Task: inverse folding
């Protein structure tokens, strides 16, 4: 019995703790005669993959098809990775070691393989795949190494020896150093002799690591140290190789297979020119638009070189092809399976992993039916490497949990992956490769189309990926021409013009999840939950055309004729404030665009008699953005699309527009211009202190933009009380004169607190109508005291043209008077509004249900009714609601009466100013 079989794990354990004891392990793994065990000529029944991720799964799948039992190894960081689930057995390795070191621990891997009767080890690519000592350790332990013999791995892994082998085989090489160099001074001497540019490459590794191109002599020292440090970290040896750098080459590599009997075949070439910092991103087989003579010579040289070194198993011979001179140069041999082996498999139909295993068992190429005359390429294949890297941040690797994963599949598409599924954890410790996607078709452009389609179908959320960048590459015209060089990415910054990631569903889920766990991000007025009701939207017949409304007249005749039509209209006109001031007063302005859009078509079809819909401006603009996280402009556009026949009205705060400070005049003008273009028709312009310059500037901005100007007077005091003479009739008539003189199309009376009593309404409106019989008058009030409908009826008798109301279920209290009540009261009178009470009730039913969804903001939780003391404290409607909410939220609910008294005192201290909701900050 051999010493290997007698060796106990207890005796091995102390020897396997460090790689320094590796030579001792080799001693124990010798046979009794001292010769390394012969591993050829036996069928493999159990195979370990000394790797992780996608390549491990690729090999496991081939083994399963060949009825070979599989063994996986995994690091502590890879406990949840899919490759360990795909194997028949899996074992933890490198406990307490750094993530990468775990997969480089040769003694432990060999011990594990022996303990579990593993007959062969496949190294995959990366990690130990090009470490000759690993291949030798396998051979010494009597384990088949799926790859070239150790001496070939060592020779081809040494770039200097590989270069000499190429020279001996009469294959052209780039001028380079005769051996590894270990100092920047040696690199400097080479540059002085051969000139610049040069490329520094790791002498004992590949994959783009430890590579630097140097174009200036003064940069040699820094780049040598960086490249050497990178090589040391990646391959355990910082020695460098330096050679002349070929400008703008194509990177062409040839796939080869060799058996143990001296036979070598090629499986044609791959074009790997799409690179970033020497890392391949896209690979193509065969190389498109390659001169047939060059192709034939390349393939012949690759086979000749491999034969000259007795190459066995799979490998890749890499060349740089100088398109300007038509010459190509050998650069290196990768004595392993390549990441991009897939494209070769797709065009030749040869399973390279299966072939590797059979060749390692001692089969010949002819046994595998792999003679050169039988290997033919069919069509083209393209591989893209989807990585968890962010192209917008210099391809910075990303990590985290994949929240959504949907792959692009279909005819001609192959997907090789590992932990690519929803819920997978992307580790920061290893290579960022997530998925390899391979597209195959009869011609190159068709393969590119399939690739582009597949990439577009991918949905990966939770981590950043390079998919947008890859799509830009695949659809780029130069790429589609089939001729790109290694500078392609550097010379096309347009490849980095990446569309912003939307991930709308994920953002919404995160938002909802955050609210469910942490509660709403905005302060609520109540502790009441929203109702579970689904508001019923009234049915309408879309088969009918949308009826004509007042907006049709406005668009046809313009603001001046529009105002004349208002005055000649025989009945009272109605503005509906439900979509703006009503919910601002009752529900803290929290009604969403979604709920407005649902009822919009009903208004357009069933209530075209409405003069206007107030749905924009005031606090809605600010609240939409800050609390609802909606765009007020999008709300306007969407409502306009579904209600084209009724004018939209907004509240404009003069020089404040929709903000809380004075803005430069040009901003106000531009704002009004854009608002008109997006659907606002009528602008109610006011100033919180009736300051005429601000009012007139706003009016001019609206007029310039082509909107209907409704210059408005803010009402305060009590005209019916002769003792209150600050805001008397003369005050209001002087303001009216100025607004009419400034060219207002409609005169607005804005009663912010609901202070306008019926008798005062008669006094004011009669006086204005007597002096200005041709100017339309529009009255806005609040119902805080409960006398709102009485005020509107008095106004209708006194010559008002338009009044503001809210639908019944959104009226009363600090909102506007009831639409249904006013419509019913004016039925069969000269001021009949023309609205159907049935239609109003149906409209109200929708809002009664919808209002219950906003219970957390419902003012009636604390405000059970209106209060006539508003005639004393004069608190504006929206401000009244806010003050009460703030009092309760601060634990001062029982002190609200005192708050109102203090408000009255503060008003008097300020000189009894005009009071508007926006003054609440005072």
Result:
């Amino acid at each position: 019995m051999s010493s290997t079989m007698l060796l106990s794990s207890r005796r091995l354990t102390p020897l396997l703790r460090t790689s320094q004891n590796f030579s001792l392990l080799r001693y124990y793994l010798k046979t009794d005669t001292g010769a390394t065990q012969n591993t050829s000529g036996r069928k493999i029944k159990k195979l370990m993959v000394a790797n992780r991720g996608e390549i491990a799964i690729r090999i496991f799948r081939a083994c399963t098809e060949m009825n070979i039992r599989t063994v996986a190894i995994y690091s502590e960081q890879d406990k949840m990775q899919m490759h360990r689930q795909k194997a028949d057995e899996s074992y933890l390795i490198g406990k307490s070691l750094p993530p990468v070191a775990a997969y480089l621990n040769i003694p432990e891997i060999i011990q594990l393989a022996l303990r579990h009767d593993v007959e062969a080890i496949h190294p995959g690519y990366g990690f130990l795949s090009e470490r000759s000592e690993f291949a030798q350790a396998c051979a010494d332990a009597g384990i088949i190494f799926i790859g070239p013999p150790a001496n070939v791995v060592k020779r081809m892994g040494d770039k200097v020896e590989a270069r000499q082998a190429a020279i001996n085989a009469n294959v052209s090489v780039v001028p380079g150093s005769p051996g590894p160099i270990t100092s920047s001074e040696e690199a400097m001497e080479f540059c002085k002799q051969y000139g610049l540019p040069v490329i520094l490459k790791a002498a004992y590794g590949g994959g783009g690591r430890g590579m630097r191109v140097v174009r200036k002599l003064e940069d040699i020292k820094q780049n040598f140290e960086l490249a050497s440090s990178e090589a040391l970290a990646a391959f355990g040896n910082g020695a460098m190789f330096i050679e002349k750098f070929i400008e703008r080459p194509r990177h062409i590599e040839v796939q080869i297979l060799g058996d143990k009997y001296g036979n070598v075949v090629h499986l044609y070439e791959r074009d790997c020119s799409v690179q970033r910092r020497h890392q391949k991103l896209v690979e193509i087989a065969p190389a498109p638009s390659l001169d047939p003579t060059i192709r034939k010579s390349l393939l012949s040289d690759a086979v000749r070189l491999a034969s000259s070194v007795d190459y066995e198993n799979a490998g890749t011979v890499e060349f740089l092809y100088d398109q300007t001179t038509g010459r190509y140069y050998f650069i290196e041999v990768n004595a392993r399976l390549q990441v991009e082996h897939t494209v070769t498999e797709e065009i030749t139909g040869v399973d390279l992993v299966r072939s590797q295993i059979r060749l390692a068992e001692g089969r010949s190429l002819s046994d595998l039916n792999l003679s050169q005359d039988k290997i033919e390429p069919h069509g083209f294949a393209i591989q893209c490497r989807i990585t968890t890297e962010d192209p917008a941040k210099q391809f910075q690797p990303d990590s985290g949990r994949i929240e959504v994963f949907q792959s692009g599949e279909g005819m001609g598409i192959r997907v090789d992956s590992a932990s690519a599924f929803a819920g997978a954890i992307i580790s920061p410790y290893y290579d960022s490769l997530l998925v390899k996607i391979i597209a195959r078709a009869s011609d190159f452009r068709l393969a590119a189309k399939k690739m582009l389609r597949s990439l577009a179908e991918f949905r990966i959320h939770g981590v950043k990926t390079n998919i947008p960048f890859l799509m830009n590459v695949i659809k780029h015209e130069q790429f589609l021409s089939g001729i790109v060089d290694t500078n392609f990415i550097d010379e096309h910054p347009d490849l980095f013009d990446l569309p912003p990631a939307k991930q709308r569903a994920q953002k919404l889920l995160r938002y909802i999840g955050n609210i469910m766990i942490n509660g709403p991000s905005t302060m609520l007025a109540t502790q009441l939950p929203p109702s579970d009701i689904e508001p019923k939207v009234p049915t309408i017949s879309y088969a009918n055309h949308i009826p004509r409304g007042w907006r049709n007249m406005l668009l046809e005749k313009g603001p001046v004729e529009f105002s004349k039509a208002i005055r000649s209209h025989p009945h009272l006109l109605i503005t509906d404030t439900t979509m703006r001031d009503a919910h601002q007063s009752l529900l803290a302005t929290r009604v969403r665009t979604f709920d407005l859009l649902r009822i919009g078509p009903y208004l357009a079809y069933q209530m075209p008699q409405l003069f206007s819909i107030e749905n924009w401006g005031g606090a809605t603009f600010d609240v939409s953005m800050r609390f609802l996280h909606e765009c007020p402009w999008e709300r306007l556009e969407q409502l306009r699309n579904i209600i084209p026949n009724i004018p939209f009205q907004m509240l404009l705060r003069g020089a404040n527009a929709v903000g809380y400070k004075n803005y430069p005049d040009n901003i106000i003008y531009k704002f009004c211009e854009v608002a008109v273009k997006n659907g606002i028709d009528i602008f109610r312009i006011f100033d919180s202190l009736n300051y005429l310059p601000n009012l007139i500037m706003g009016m001019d901005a609206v007029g310039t933009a082509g909107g209907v100007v409704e210059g408005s007077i803010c009402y305060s005091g009590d005209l019916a009380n002769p003792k209150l003479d600050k805001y008397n009739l003369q005050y209001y008539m002087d303001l009216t004169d100025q607004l009419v003189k400034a060219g207002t199309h409609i005169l607005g009376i804005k009663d912010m607190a609901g202070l306008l009593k019926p008798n005062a309404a008669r006094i004011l409106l009669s006086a204005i109508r007597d002096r200005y019989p041709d100017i339309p008058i529009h009255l806005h009030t609040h119902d805080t005291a409960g006398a709102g409908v009485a005020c509107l009826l008095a106004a209708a008798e006194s010559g008002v043209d338009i009044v503001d109301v809210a639908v019944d279920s959104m009226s009363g209290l600090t909102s506007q008077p009831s639409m249904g009540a006013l419509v019913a009261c004016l039925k069969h009178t000269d001021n009949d509004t023309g609205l159907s009470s049935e239609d109003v009730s149906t409209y109200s039913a929708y809002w009664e249900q919808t209002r219950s969804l906003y219970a957390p903001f419902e003012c009636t939780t604390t405000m059970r009714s209106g209060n006539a003391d508003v005639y004393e404290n004069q608190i504006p409607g929206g401000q009244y609601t806010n003050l009460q909410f703030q009092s309760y939220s601060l634990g001062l609910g029982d002190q609200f009466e005192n708050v109102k008294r203090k408000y009255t005192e503060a008003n008097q201290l300020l000189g009894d100013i005009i009071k508007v909701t926006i003054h609440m900050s005072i």
The longest helix spans residues 550-568. The radius of gyration is 41 Å. Residues 46 and 118 are 5 Å apart (CA to CA). The chain has a mean pLDDT of 90.
